[in-house]
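Example record used in the benchmark description.
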Amino acid sequence: MKKRIERLRGMHDLLPEAYRQQTQVVGRVRALLERAGYEPVDTPVLERSDLFQASFGQEAWQNLYAFQLHQRELCLRPEYTASICRLYLEQYQQSPLPLRFQYVGPVFRYEAPGRGRYRQYTQLGIELFGGQPLRGDGEIVQLACDILHELGIARYRLELGHVGVVSNFVERLHLDAQTARLLLSLMEQISRSPEGEQAAQARLEALYPEQVPNPALPASEAGRWRRLASSDGSNQLVAALLNSFSLPFGDEDSRREIAERFLWKIGRSEQRTLVFSALEFLRKLRALAGPPPEVFQELRQLLQSYQLDDDPLAELEQLVTTLMEVTGIDRRQITLNLALGRGVSYYTGLLFEIHASDDEGLDLQLCGGGRYDHLVEAVGGTRAVNACGFAFGLERLISLMPASQWPQTARTQALVIPVSKQDLAYAGRVARLARREGGIIAELDMNARGVSNALRQAARRGFRLALIVGEEERQTNTVKLHDLLSGSECLVADHDLAAALREGGYSA
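Model output (structure tokens):
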């Protein structure tokens, strides 16, 4: 027996009703965004893999649908932002700013599938290039809230963060670039839950294990060696020290290797201290997450204790005030979380996410976005460009829309039944007339099993009307209208078909 080929895990088929709902939602959101000046664009599903190197860290990179074809590294689009940046560089680099784009289309990520999570899903979003950052941030967050209100989703939670606070703290620690990137990538895990925080700590413990101290080496001496490890020319100094010992260290290469390993261990220990200092700072930020305005004062006190700039707080404070005034969002729907992290690494300022609960209380992330002023430059631009945007997961949006948002616009379905094969051409003409002039759904009977059988099949499928044409109707250019609910019939001229359908209440 031939094996059945099944749908790939994590993918889903879009059936007629779901497809209609998706089309309706896209139309409504696109109209809203166009009124705000956002022009629709699209990009290829297939891109060069290196386009996303500036977006995704090493772990996220493993989730991309990447492959090699004809000596080229290619990738199915995992998100839109980097692709829109490439589009901007190729098509609009000389255009005056600001520029506003909207998009909708499939993206692909090889992640663990689950409830409401697919490996191919639909992103709907916007990107804004240019403009003053505070104004741009305010516009995109307001539009994200407007989309939810347009679709009747009133119960949601807006989480606001600012990557600048953590970035400034990490920069002050003078961590190596790889460690700094790792910490920023772990922010998302840490901000999600205590379990995520524990997982992040376990990973850092594995990468930076605690070194067993040498009891023969006083703390002051260990500190001197750490300072030596961070100084220029430290390899040469340690190698010279080893040369002064009358011990069999081997040749010059062996002594150099011993010096490098020694300094690596000392530097690793110093990195561990700094890394866990940063982790503790992230813990404190997460612990203070809460609704405005109370949380602002507590966050300011924390930043002052670390001697950090609190300008990002002033930006967020103004943004919250504007949102409450313009969109009417309740402050209890807003959470300020400066430990908030996102799954891509290009953000430079504002971060935000929108969450909502489904009927069973499961938390769903509907939207994510923020500011990424260096991404255009990272994908090949000659200079940085102020930019920000967001993306919704369309499937999750639709799953949370109330039933009242789906208009009852079902049109009458009619089955056009030719009595014999000689009546087929005339039946086709009647079907076209009913669709074009009558505004109803008219299907041509495909079974050719007789009128009675066709009527039973139409009733079983929920059709309201049958249009029967035989030799008599063909000769007189008429149509027999058969109401499948009442069983009544009437004969009408083909040129009066549209009027008869309207008068009978079959068409609008």
